[in-house]
Amino acid sequence: MLRRTTPLRYFATSITNSSVKRLRHRKLNDDISFEDFILKGQVLQTYRDMLRTLQKIPDASARTELHDFVKSEFKAAQNTKDVHLRRSQLIGGIREFKSLTNSLGLSMPEIDFVRK
């Protein structure tokens, strides 16, 4: 008995094959430590929380200006290699942003850090 390939089966197979090819070509970054990995997640979560908080600002021009400022600060600190310096920059940025949001009458979610 001949087995006919349905269009759906062909589509699923082609997606799977292309996914495998993409994963093979993806470079793995072996030099990242566990602390770097955790800090990267904390930075990303903080950035998202800040952007969500900025959406609460009623004035569109002020919101855009603060969004650009937050984005530029995160981009400027992106190439810092020292984990301890990055952590201190993140904590300092959170403090500054909290003081800014308090002066605007907004609230920012609490961020917990695991300290060693």
UniProtKB/TrEMBL annotation:
What is a single Pfam family found in this protein's UniProt entry?
A: Complex1_LYR
Per its record, how is this protein called by name?
DEKNAAC103031
- Which intervals hold domain Complex 1 LYR protein? 42-82
What taxonomic ancestry is recorded?
A: Eukaryota, Fungi, Dikarya, Ascomycota, Saccharomycotina
Q: Which InterPro entries match?
A: Complex1_LYR_dom, Complex1_LYR_LYRM2
